[in-house]
Design a protein that fits this description.
The chain is an alpha/beta fold and 179 residues long. It has one domain. It has helices at residues 44-48, 80-98, 135-145, 154-161; strands at residues 6-10, 15-19, 26-30, 39-43, 53-54, 57-61, 65-67, 103-112, 123-132. Strand 3 and strand 4 form a beta hairpin.
Length: 179
Amino acid sequence: MGRHGTRFSDPRCGAEAISAHDQRDYVKFSIPQGKVLTSDDVIREILEADVLINVPIAKVHGGAVITAAMKNWMGAVWNRQYWHQAGLQQCIADFSTALRADLIILDANRVLLTNGPKGPGQTKDVGEVVAAFDPVATDAYAATLLGLRPQDVPHVELAYQAGVGEMDLAKVQMKHVKA
């Protein structure tokens, strides 16, 4: 990808950020369990990563109801518009059956409650950062922080039905740690 996308490095921490803005930066990715989305073009480095960490920001979204772990994957694909045309909720769930992060870190320090995803809108200072492994549970919990029930978010229910994770927060082990 180095020939196409823009790379930003910081030698102090060994991190490299990549801006994949050319279709040549993407590779075909199979989604065997997909009902609507059976393949997509995904940023090559995401598929080649030794460790994959998904770092979404919790907010409402006009089309997807919320943005959290599963919706955040839209930033990894070339043709985001297709998801909207084919059925956004099912595409989010389908994609989540095939690509899983090793760790999810949900930024819920300040959440956007209205006019998402771009705002401006009403915000709420929640003061939480959530570390998780289960994207369905993460999104179910994010829904509650946004004043919704997990079942109010169709892709949470669809991903749960596909076996991606647990949406019943009573069945999820959570540990709250004070800073």
